[in-house]
């Protein structure tokens, strides 16, 4: 009987962990219009977003190790990993399963009718 309660307790704790929303810090330039669309995409997919309007994005990107060739107008940070550009929420979840990576970046800035289109994800080690 005692084992049943231990197993049940573990199952319940896993369910509550799965139900918790992930928090991502989004650092963005104040003058960019596409950043808010990406933030909405993340929120629509269950992320808690902490929005930071920055005056010096270059220093932040350098500190996080974002390669200059992949730089965009906004950078997300989740569990110490960077998310550069319009990386879809599903790919951010995949990134979290690979803690050895510095981050992920999406080249290009195509956002069409509220959806990400034609993207290519780069994983950075």
TrEMBL record:
Where would one find the signal peptide in this protein? 1-18
Q: Which Pfam families match?
A: DUF411 (PF04214)
* Keyword terms: Signal
Please report the name of this protein according to its UniProt entry: Uncharacterized conserved protein
Its source organism is: Pseudomonas anguilliseptica
